TrEMBL record:
<protein>
    <submittedName>
        <fullName>Four helix bundle protein</fullName>
    </submittedName>
</protein>
<dbReference type="InterPro" id="IPR012657">
    <property type="entry name" value="23S_rRNA-intervening_sequence"/>
</dbReference>
<dbReference type="Pfam" id="PF05635">
    <property type="entry name" value="23S_rRNA_IVP"/>
</dbReference>
<dbReference type="InterPro" id="IPR036583">
    <property type="entry name" value="23S_rRNA_IVS_sf"/>
</dbReference>
Amino acid sequence: MKEQNLKIRSNEFAHRCVKLALALPSTKLGSHIEGQLIRSSTSTAANYRAACLAQTKRGFISKLSIVIEEADESNFWIQFLLDEELLTFNRCEALLKESAELTSIFIASRKTAEKSKDRQ
């Protein structure tokens, strides 16, 4: 059940990030961040789905490590566009929080998987 909830949550996160990215101004910097945020957020969702299909614990941990990197990178880009004042804090606050929460959840999941792998 938790796995399915995280699939849904990471998918919704990706969709919301795409919408946010498309709202960025059509400047060189805005276009760059648009592409980076779309790539990292959709990669978060896609790689989590792949992690759930991993055939081994090692494969799961490896894919989850990519998910963590991509979720954290999404957080970076959202914070960056705020730092550059491309969008308002009110517009980005929920996604900034969600990216941080997802990163923390995926880190905790990886730690749990690593502990159970070590017990085997």
